[in-house]
## 1
Amino acid sequence: MYADLIILGGGPAGLTAGLYAARARINVLLLEKGSPGGQMAATELVDNYPGQPEPILGFELAQRMETQARKFGLEIQNAAVSFVTKIDSGFELSCDSGIVYSCRALILATGANPVKLGIPGELQLAGRGVSYCAVCDGPFFRDVEVAVIGGGDSAVEEALYLCRFASKVHLVHRRDKLRAVKEIQERAFAEPKLTIHWNHVPEEIIGEFDVKALRIRSTLDGSLSELSIGGVFFYVGIKPTNEPFIDLIETDQRGFVMTDENMATAFPGIFAAGDVRVKNLRQISTAVGDGAIAAYSAQHYLESH
Ligand code: NAP
């Protein structure tokens, strides 16, 4: 299957690139392996997206972006692309299913996924008390004590969300200061159900068939203690989804895609937008900006090649 422009990934960056490309009447196709929305769709409430004075469900914002892009004629197909190769006329995208797509220009908007710490018990108990998505799994922990690992925006925001269900939420953070933005911190400090374990890291998740406890270690004196909890939510950062095209493009040490200010990678015809890109601020609003610029740059590339 051929399109002049293929957008890989249907989060806010991909959907915005799709909206702009469709409006520019480019022959464009967006490929998404799950349902459109990316991490935005798995976020409980979004309260910092401009033009939206009341908090909006991440899922609803995702649906609105998809509806708007489709309204302008964007075609979205469900496809898990496993590798991208360069061909004479552009690029070929091969899927696990055997389907092969081709295009002349490509926008990488594959986003990023939660980092796994790999501590004992984490993999074994994934889906049985270990989770990376409070919005998806939070309601299963009604009246249960849970732990959240991390001190960034995601950890603190999702810990606050879990306070709606859990009897108590333990936030385990390796330093004595949160990385999360001040407004989120203020809400955390005011939440009676939330206890912060400063200067601690998770050591082991205890439980045979489900989570029974979390062993944590002090980063100050190495002492160990145990929290009796039924669930652990990890929010220790994100890593870029770059596997299908890692051999084609230049990345930083962490694997995020390098682009210039026009979202162009060093590889002619390949652009990148959103969380997969090297950038300082990963937000829905910055992903949207990237998407618009990437579509504009791809349009110029297509017109001049
Ligand atoms: P993040 O900002 O990278 O924070 C990761 C947290 O995990 C940090 O507190 C870090 O500790 C901790 N951590 C990392 N490695 C660890 C380890 N090995 N052991 C223990 N703790 C560890 O990641 P994020 O919170 O997922 O956010 C990702 C991006 O999305 C950020 O740019 C963020 O601003 C954005 N975001 C924004 C919002 C919002 O605006 N509402 C919501 C969610 C996410 P240190 O602090 O010590 O490094």
## 2
Amino acid sequence: MKSVAVLPGDGIGPEVTAAALDVVEKLGLPLDLRFGEIGWECWRHEGDPVPQRTWKLLEETDTCLLGAITSKPLREAEAELPSGLRGTGLTFVSPVIQLRQRLSLYANVRPVIDLVDRRFDFTVIRENTEGLYAGFDFHGLDDALWNVVREHPNAQASGPRATGVTLRLQTEFGMDRLLRYGFAYARSRGYTRLTLVDKPNVLRHTSNHLRERLERMAGDYPDIETEILNVDAVALWMVRRPERFGVLVAENMFGDILSDLGAGVMGGLGLAPSGNIGDHGSYFEPVHGSAPGMAGQGRANPMAMMLAVAQMLDHLDLSVPGDDLRAAVRAVAARRTTVTYDMGGTSGTREVAQAVTEELAAEKNASDTVDEVVDRLSRLDTASVSDALDSLGVGGVLAGIAPRVPGTRAAGRAFTVTYQPVDDSAQGFRNAANYLDDVPEGAFVVVDNAGSTTCTNWGSLLTRLALRRGVRGTALHGSARDIAEIRAAGYPLFSTGVTMVSGKNRVELAATGREVVIGDVTVRPGDIVVADDNGALIVPADHAVEVADRAERVEHTEEAIAGAVGAGLRLDEARRRFGYAKPWDDSGARTSRA
Ligand code: IPM
Ligand code: MN
């Protein structure tokens, strides 16, 4: 049982929190939710936006879910204090900044994903404890600070009292732990590029220091390509070519700005989640603020909060329900029938929550029935399944993809993988097979390498991992190697060809989960692959039950014919009697048997 401090906050925070928790409740997870207070109301009544009791709650729980909190500038904050507390020297410090700094939550992880079209998927990892947010922000300078800036002509013209300074704190301690987190995150999620976002052409010394730290650490992660880009250029590319990014690591303020930009690229702040993570604590929140003007109207988009919950579940090692929740949010977002105003809809917060809950239930049912039909198909010969497909006028045979391990048979839901030749600018090993970490149990991997047999897309190492993950088999529109080991492992492998040439640095992953076309067959993720010594074929998901029904009748009919012939009946008579030509036709097999 994991405990979660739930701090709904103020503004629209409580509404989106309630909506997300309604959905979470349906997941039936082992979570102990403990509610607490934080934010503007605490400031207004107690002069402290993060009361002691809340710190205590944070200490006692495994992680925290935060709604949203209003932060106001100096003057407005003072004005809203109760009269007894005004002028007593209390200053409002943004609660989220207090949490981040006091709990040392140094990595602010903000995924930017294309929920609907999946064109891009990158993550901004923002430094969260230092940089321009370290709190060294002064108006009116003492001698020490004045000595630093006094030569500047504008400072000369203003004098120390009329000059302000903010220091960008950048420490090796802070940089190293952030970079390490960034590399580890990239590796664990299969990202192959880490972009350090900075401003080396202007902030020459601090940027150079950061660069040296990056270069030192990059040696430990040869599988991850690194680059350093100016923050302004990153802003441009994030809009123009978001698909080029993997993990972006940035100092606090740059990361703050870029993550709002990222939210814009995703389709708005209503969709962007974040996690604030340290070595001994974490909290998860939507990137959006409290939108006080919208509070209480029930119009706010709860999706960012739901995605923040999904991120939290990943963090708590509950990544399967996390993925399910994300998938349900994706589906509701893609359908666009039940979305809030910011996504062009008219639905309210609660209705969106309801739609996501229903989607979760529907996905659960669908996967139950799919499991059942996969089970039935796995007991049938491809010959009967092919007859059944024929009878429905559906193709499906993966022509030219031959069995490589005699005597194996398998059926499973297609997990599609598309390869492309490595582009010229590529350097180093591309980790073209890391997708395997994400293949769900029971899936059948279908790899599209355009039928090329000049290099491989599969071998013994992948076979071993596939077996461990409960993958049912692999069909390659391409080549495999290590056939002897794969045979010894008894793994159902089907391919266009066999060659010994490595695919390393010759092909790279273009996509997973995308529709692929092999010969004249379209394979959609979730279609069912059935394969045996005859070869491999695809049963479209929406025909699967009917195909299984018909294929079972084909097999019963053939058994019946074989039995009758064995008992002395003429073959032509047996075929006629048992309806060989159309066994799926009720008037055939059934009447004859009667
Ligand atoms: C964010 C917010 C905060 C920040 C504010 C509320 C202090 O904009 O989480 O991005 O600047 O970090
Ligand atoms: Mn921000």
